[in-house]
Amino acid sequence: MNIEVLKNEIYKLKEEKNALIVAHNYQIDEVQEIADFVGDSFYLSKVCAERPEEVIVFCGVHFMAESAKILSPHKKVLLPEIDAGCPLADMVTAEDVENLKKKYPDYSIVCYINSPASVKAKSDVICTSSNAVKIVREFPNDKIIFLPDKNLGSFVRKQVPEKDIILWEGFCITHYKIKKEDVEKAKSLHPNALVLVHPECRPEVVELADFVGSTKQIIDFATASKEKEFIIGTEMGVLYSLKKLNPDKKFYILHPGMICPNMKKNTLQSVRDALLYERYQIEVEEEIMQGAKRALAKMLEMG
Ligand code: 13P
To answer: In terms of CATH architecture, what is 175-253?
Structure first.
């Protein structure tokens, strides 16, 4: 179907169903273009919880739509592509958390939002890349188990040296591709550019960056900056907002492989089908829902 026809159908269905469309910064350009709100995980989780619409089309990956459902159980939350998952989220299970709790009974579990609801339900508090440092720093326990992302965890550990932080071994397969040599090469090619990276990057990459932040924080930083050139160390979907908001600035992506295959699954066609057929509805088991809601609500309260 023609792009303009699809877009018009989406706007019409959205109106008819009084639906909200939100898109993560890694979505394809056309999907970001038709969304009501575009942002990072934290921003979108807040938007979904606060907005009045009863139907939410979440253009992102499964854990994001699941978190929206947990925060607003009465709403119909739709994920256009049901197999848009997150390999990082799948690197830890509820059983792993149970075992950690038995081994380290004095520790509190701070869980990155990139995780399944069953893991969130067994955690003390959730965090996103934009508030992980604040949550760990302010959580009232000096002994923390941070999971599942070892790179974000290691960034937090550096910022909060006063706490004893145990890391889990998970990582993002896309950010992991960026090596120290890529940063060195990009810096020599663009000596005037600032390096902005996501904290899911390896520690040796984060070490060389001028700014470390969530996708939204990277976009906000580049937009507020007086500098004109930036080397970007995260998924290339952020280029949509970076270029739109900063037509006079130059952006260089750190690695050609910065494409999250799962984030790229949602298309205009699947968004239209999501609205038309009200699919794919996200459901969470009642028992898991309660625990996960407590941990997510704690994040919103602290963050
Ligand atoms: P944000 O916190 O920037 O949304 O990052 C989420 C994510 O999954 C990064 O890979």
So the answer is: 3-Layer(aba) Sandwich (3.40)
**Contact indicator for 26, 262 with CB cutoff of 8 Å:** no
Tell me the CA–centroid distance for residue 5 and ligand 1, in Å: 31
**59 labeled binding residue:** no
Whether the domain at 3-84+263-285 and the domain at 175-253 fall into the same CATH topology: yes
- Counting DSSP H helices and E strands in the chain, the numbers are 14, 12
> In the chain, what are the domain boundaries?
3-84+263-285, 89-171+287-302, 175-253
- 114 annotated ligand binder: yes
Band of residue 1 on the pLDDT scale cut at 50, 70, 90: confident
Fold classified for 89-171+287-302:
Rossmann fold (3.40.50)
Nearest Cα residue to atom 8 of ligand 1: 114
Per-residue pLDDT of 72-102, as tens digits, reads 999 999 999 999 999 999 999 999 999 999 9
> What is the reported pTM?
0.97
- ipTM of this predicted complex? 0.97
74 is in an annotated binding site: no
Residue closest to 81 by CA, chosen among 251, 259, 296, 279: 279
Q: Which of 22, 24, 126, 299 to mutate to test the pocket of ligand 1 (most atoms within 8 A of CB)?
A: 24
Residue 198 annotated as binding? yes
User: For residue 38, how far is its CA from the centre of ligand 1 (angstroms)?
Assistant: 12
CATH 1.10.10.10 fits 3-84+263-285, yes or no: no
**Is 252 in contact with 193 (CB distance < 8 Å)?**
yes
Helix axes 41-50, 286-302, angle to 10 degrees: 110
Cβ 215 under 6 angstroms from ligand 1: yes
- For 142-171, write each residue's pLDDT tens digit: 999 999 999 999 999 999 999 999 999 999
